[in-house]
Structure prediction request, 266 residues.
Amino acid sequence: MEVLNLGTHQTTGNAREKKNRFWRRQFVAEVTTPQIVFDMVFGVVGPILCFVFDPFVFHAGFVGPPLLPEYQVFTYLFSGLQMALLCLWLLIGPGNQIWNWTIGGALVGGGIFCLAAGCVLAPFSIMGLMFGIGIFGFTPFLTALVYLRNAIRAFRARSHDESRFMRALGLTVGLVFAMALPALSSMQIHQMVNSAVNEIVHGDPQHAALAAHRLVPLRFFAGVELDQMANAYLSETDPTRKELLKSCYREITGEDIENRASILRD
Prediction:
């Protein structure tokens, strides 16, 4: 019996040791090809697919109106920046200390953001599993692993300068850069889109047409504001103004405003 118990303990110990070695390998300085593939799949391709096939978070779907449309612009810009920084880090690798800690700080911000997003979406993702789409809602957790793993590698990378001040400076710059740039850019985009939509809704036909033309390249960031146009179309009683709104909406989106208005009406 003692021999059997000893064998059982040894087997359990070996399994635990293999598991520990697996997790340690995820954060060591040596990068393997499968890890790079994993990072590209879940750090870049996965988030893009989530945005493309988004069923309800930023776009209206079969479950009704979008869940968080007001955060669409910031999330798109933030995610795009994180993907670019991840690709840059995987391509260039470690350098001097300020670079390592700046890129590490930025990726830490991305990891924390993805963890928060995953937690917010988790209840909806669990319900979505019944429809076969909930699996996308768990992608942020894997994306967070990618960003945090590469951030830790950046922090652990050795350089000639080991100043604590430079580490703190790089970490702060990275975090601020990762959050502030998308935030400021999204505010600017919202301001531009709001101004253009106001011109379309309240301006004369000439200014409305020019505003619609300006909105065409920003249509992917203007979901909330375009819904304001659809609501204005619903409440408008002047047939000429309704036709103008319909024409501008079609120029911006390529779609019929009646379809969107019917969704909002329901």
